[in-house]
Design a protein that fits this description.
alpha/beta; five-stranded mixed sheet; two-stranded parallel ribbon; 7 strands; about 25% strand; globular
Length: about 190
């Protein structure tokens, strides 16, 4: 379920239970990169997790990658989720990521993004007035987007968007392919 949040220490048990109960073709694990394209410091946690996951699910197709270049054929997935990844992408990368996720999404598919963002640009300015120096430094170090901007990008790409505010800066953004785009995919007119 794309709207479920799982604490890291419970993730392995959650995945094993989920795979036992649901039909899962493959699992894709993100490969976070820094702005200079080197591995993120989080890879020191992800690599052992992936190794453990491979041991526990030896028959499962397991892939690692970024959503800027997905190693999959067109129309490969029903649902794509991205958690805490979009705020690392600048505006150009966000557009590329949306197009790449759309490319591998099946015609009945949806994209779910859980990330740090603001509803509008002015909300960021209000937040900055009341945040701590550390929070302000984090804002300047990342590329926080807005719900407004994501809605524009996804709508331009043929999606119908919904969003849910979880906290001041945490949102869940859901993008479903519009009926027109679903019909294009069905008739193989989709690029």
């Amino acid at each position: 379920n794309g709207l479920t949040t799982v604490p890291t220490h419970e993730l392995m048990d959650f995945l094993l239970k989920y795979v036992a109960q649901e039909k899962v073709e493959r699992i894709v694990v993100g490969h976070p990169k820094q702005m200079n394209n080197e591995d993120s410091e989080n890879m020191k946690y992800i690599k052992p997790f992936v190794a453990q996951l491979k041991k526990k699910l030896p028959d499962m197709l397991l892939h690692q990658g970024t959503f800027l270049s997905l190693p999959f054929e067109k129309c490969s997935f029903d649902t794509i989720t991205a958690s805490y990844a979009f705020h690392h992408c600048d505006a150009q990368e966000r557009l590329l990521a949306v197009r790449e996720m759309k490319r591998v999404l099946r015609r009945q598919g949806c994209i779910v993004i859980a990330d740090l963002m603001f509803e509008h640009a002015q909300d960021r300015m209000k937040y900055e007035q009341h945040c701590t120096p550390q929070q302000k430094a984090e804002l300047e170090d990342e590329y926080f987007t807005t719900v407004e901007e994501l809605t524009h990008i996804f709508s331009e790409e043929g999606f119908i968007c919904t969003n849910y505010k979880v906290s001041d800066i945490l949102w869940i953004f859901v993008a479903d392919l519009s009926e027109e785009d679903r019909e294009c995919r069905k008739n193989k007119r989709f690029i």
